[in-house]
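COURSE: Structural Biology Practicum
ASSIGNMENT: Worksheet 4, Part C
STUDENT ID: 0417
INSTRUCTIONS: Below are two proteins. For each, the amino acid sequence is given first, followed by its structure token string. Answer the questions at the end about the second protein only.

PROTEIN I
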Amino acid sequence: MSLRYDPEWFALAGPKLETQSEVLPIHDIATRRSRYAQLFVRSTYAPPADINIDTFKTPASDGHEVVVYRVSKKTETETAYSSRTPAVLHIHGGGFISVHAKDVLPSLVPYVRESGIPIFSVDYRWAPENPFPTPVEDCWSGLLFLHSRSEELGIDVSRIAVMGESAGGGLAAGLALLARDRNLSPALAKQILIYPMLDDRTITDRSGGLAVFSINDVITGWAAYIGEAMGTDNVSPIAAPARVGHVAGLPSLYLDVGQLDLFLGEDVAYARKFLEAHIQTELHVYPGVIHAFQRWAPTSQVVKQVFVNRLRAITTIEAPEG
């Protein structure tokens, strides 16, 4: 039997996606930025009454000030901490070339409200103006910020997870590799990777014509991020984590992806490396849905289920053994 869309999800998402189905030419970054900007409500977002959004700045290695947003429950920031909590360092998607951290803060609120765990989101610099390694180094600066300010922030540095979607998932995976290779202590506790963009060699589109993120977008993003090295043997695993030779020493992994997502193959292959290395791994493949599927049908059962699974991944952050 051939692959098909999840019927309930498609009934809700199909009409919306038809207006987003135009495939843009490769390397047309300006139009992509304009299109992505239209998907988000900018500047006017007011958080719910029980949620705080705070803004911090921390220096990158080159002197640039990296903005880090904190989304937290008001009870966490207005009362003294009786014990330190886990924390999530979030890295947003956008094909390495677009979207601001503040644009995705509303999507983080339900996880914070239900878990009580603060999420910090890094506003990293975009490619191609700032190619690899600048975006992942900005994320590293965000991680060091959590470590250096942990007492003030009330977080347990042994229970920090990195989380990201799409290109942000790739950056989160790259950050986990960077933290391992730089001997971050305490080590990261978990990776929560949401349909991550991991492999610059991806050339197959599985979306069945309803792509809001096409293979042209993939090529454009990777070319902006790693330039002429794309597809060669000269690509660092920090940039394209699918290329990593071994995963020993990396934190536990949660990964989810739609079966019609163009990143399915690379994501499942990446999770398999963790399974074979006997690293705690939770992998979900959702039949009948494409990349970024939750945006287009938030009331569908598959989206409700993915929220439950991601929430559980957040609420079960534990310090690594050893």
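PROTEIN II
(use this one for the questions)
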Amino acid sequence: MKEQMIEIKFPDGSVKEFVKGITLEEIAGSISSSLKKKAVAGKVNEQSFDLRRNIKENAEVEIITIDSNEGVEIARHSAAHILAQAVKRIYGDAKLGVGPVIENGFYYDMDLQSSVNVEDLPKIEKEMKNIINENVKIERVEISREEAKKLFQEMNDSLKLELLEAIPNEESVTLYKQGEFVDLCRGPHLPSTGYLKAFQLTHVSGAYWRGDSNNQVLQRIYGVAFASQKELENYLHFVEEAAKRNHRKLGSELELFMFSEEAPGMPFYLPKGQIIRNELEEFLRKIQNEYNYQEVRTPFMMNQELWEKSGHWGHYKDNMYFSEVDNKSFALKPMNCPGHMLMFKNKLHSYRELPIRMCEFGQVHRHEFSGALNGLLRVRTFCQDDAHLFVTPEQIEDEIKSVMAQIDYVYKTFGFEYEVELSTRPEDSMGDDKLWEQAEAALANVLQSLNYKYRLNEGDGAFYGPKIDFHIKDALNRSHQCGTIQLDFQMPEKFDLNYIDENNEKRRPVVIHRAVLGSLDRFLAILIEHFGGAFPAWVAPVQVKVIPVSNAVHEQYANRIADKLAQAGIRVERDIRDEKLGYKIREAQMQKVPYVLVIGDKEMESKAVNVRKYGEEKSEVVSLDIFAASIEEEIKGRK
């Protein structure tokens, strides 16, 4: 009897015939032995399946390898199961919650009789490695709901029974088995435990069952997993480096900012941190002046009617802070735009005045859940470098190009590379389709005319208009969304904004929302971590530290040097404490001061300074005038 054949189409467009019922693993082997070796799963008509899946009809097939993003995700999913199996072997009776894949790794929530802490992780890792070395086959089993219920009742696993009840009736119930271990899971998974090559358990925590604070607290064990040992080692090195650069740690050590339980999520800027804030503001202020921006200031608190008119009430009220004043509801502003709309409306404008470019370093307040707060990266109050450009439709593209030039200059000054993203209309938007299409087309036209490569991020625009977002890359290659350009046809309608055109008729302006840094607080956190606290001299809170070798002999000359530098506008400190020279130099290095000047006999005799630049081993003796001119040029040029 002739075997039935099916047609399989591959990603490159080629089509081959195979015997009906062939597995994904066999298809991989028919292409090459190396592909079969790396294969961990496959896609059949865009749906992911285990490698042993039989294919019984014509289909489009793609083999998933361990070194692909999808392959690593599958490995991480299987790592969670191996973790749960190891815990059950060690601790016996354990009720299993969920074990999903997360960024770079996985976790598993469990109800255990005994407590697991970080010291127990090596023991669990060892058992996981035993399971991997056993190379246990991982099998998918489809069973009836009744059979699954009976199985988990016998296992006395109330958590799995609850998850089973949540599966829709029309959906099949699948289990995954590896040796004595069985779990309720949709899959797919690795063919066997031996495919997992590189993992490490990282930490433990408590977690409410199903994320509900009314439920019991389970023990959550976290881990990371990668396709190779080298990738794992690179990741662990990255984590170690990120911990050293953590802005909360450095912010405390360098005395930049603090937090207090009296104002959760609201930063207190210490003198050195405020200096950096001021430098950032002055840098932006200088650029804005060059581009003819007009700086304004709006109230922190405005009434509910304003927020209803702007649309923020309907889209943002859950993130706003409210207060009753004179029997009326007021809110702390979460954004600066409505205040700028009122300012524009304050008088009638001619088309000859446009574009009008209003800018503000505006302090805004947005409610964040306590669990989401993260140093300066996620706070409840922050300062935005906000601007709103009121333009005619004909001016849109030129103004956006101008803003992009500003953003490019600022990011390059700090040495940041960046990527661009065009975000389109979200589901909870306001306004008609035609205006949205017009706005999206305008932004796309600018990007294309400037030859910018950009990603399309559909559905992630602001509720009032599409936007261009700028994502900077830090020293650890992490991406941070900072700058934004948002095109808004809606707010002028809401506030009935007008200007008089050349025919003496009223016309609606278009509003361009613009931020370069976004949140100054968040940008400061990024700067701290990008530079590891060792800021460029122009933005460093202390630019020079003067240290006399002997206070009795050299202090007077050291003071003259410090005074001369201070008169030139350089931020200088002198260390005349009665401490050893080596200790004072080391402390200045720990404070990451860009330049340390050591003053001894030789320097005093030759009217020179011994210059130690941060990060460099060798020092250099130069005249004070040469050093002063050099650092002034460095600061002025923002190098």
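ANSWER KEY EXCERPT:
Q1: The mean pLDDT is 91.
Q2: The first helix runs from residue 24 to 31.
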